[in-house]
Specification:
There is one protein chain. The chain is mostly helical. About 80% of the residues lie in helices and about 5% in strands. Strand 1 and strand 2 (about 220) form a beta hairpin. The longest helix has about 35 residues, at about 95-130. It starts with a helix and ends with a helix.
């Protein structure tokens, strides 16, 4: 498995795909901060030219980390069946379970590297171009990213499992979206009438970071600021890692290549 991880790491670092993806994402965020800067300079009493306003976009939408994780997995492994890469790896004698675990590790490490680069440009451009205090929003963002990472890892593992299961990438994407967003949303709204669904929905990552985080210009209400809330974030993320990991191992053993 270690040799497989090394080979995939070499392939990724010597291809342009992830560099381009990280560059585009960083550019979009820098452009957003630049628009806020220009608006602040040219519009009277413009209230949004603040570091806190820029960073609040991420704090209020940490679910984007889940989606970003799937995008990374898709960019890394979506075309391996077309290129015959997977057949060659199996023929080389590497067990399928090791391949799946290796893909998950490579995807998570790559996603973390991309996130680090993107956050440097995002936060750096906000601090350079915008005004206002930064300490509180930076602290909330750091805490939120840390609280969401286990669930983001679970989203990556789910993505790898679905890309392994389905022949077509678009089907894997639809299935991922259904598991991560559609089912939690249905459970959330159905929970207004059915108590058991309300309790289930309250422990689904998408719902947690959508409905238990309040961010506005007057302050923050973030569940990771309390011991119970932080523990809840960790529990659902770790549970997702084990559940999706077990499902992926099962699929990798049974799926014909």
């Amino acid at each position: 498995m270690l040799n497989y991880i090394k080979s995939e790491g070499y392939r990724i670092t010597h291809s342009k795909g992830m560099y381009a993806a990280a560059g585009i994402a960083s550019g979009v965020l820098v452009l957003m901060n630049l628009v806020l800067y220009v608006s602040n300079k040219n519009l009277t009493d413009f209230p949004y030219g603040l570091i806190s306003f820029s960073l609040n976009n991420l704090i209020a939408n940490l679910q984007t980390l889940f989606l970003s994780g799937f995008v990374v997995a898709s960019l890394l492994f979506a075309d391996e069946r077309k290129n015959g890469t997977l057949k060659n790896v199996v023929a080389y004698g590497i067990p399928r379970v090791h391949i799946f675990i290796g893909k998950c590790i490579v995807s998570i490490v790559t996603a973390l590297c991309c996130m680090a680069v993107i956050l440097v440009f995002y936060v750096g451009s906000a601090c350079l171009l915008l005004g206002g205090p930064a300490a509180e929003s930076l602290g909330k963002m750091a805490g939120g990213v840390g609280a969401a990472l286990p669930s983001a890892f679970a989203a990556v593992i789910l993505g790898v499992a679905l890309l392994t299961l389905f022949e077509k990438d678009i089907v894997a994407m639809i299935a991922w979206f259904a598991v991560m967003y559609v089912i939690p949303t249905v459970c959330y709204y159905a929970g207004f009438r059915i108590d058991v669904l309300s309790k289930i929905a309250a422990w689904m990552p998408w719902n947690i970071f959508s409905h238990e985080v309040t961010v506005n210009m007057s302050g923050y209400v973030c569940l990771w600021d309390t011991p119970f809330g932080l523990a809840k974030c960790m529990i659902v993320g770790i549970a997702g890692i084990f559940i999706f990991g077990a499902a992926g191992i099962f699929v990798s053993r049974k799926k014909e290549i």
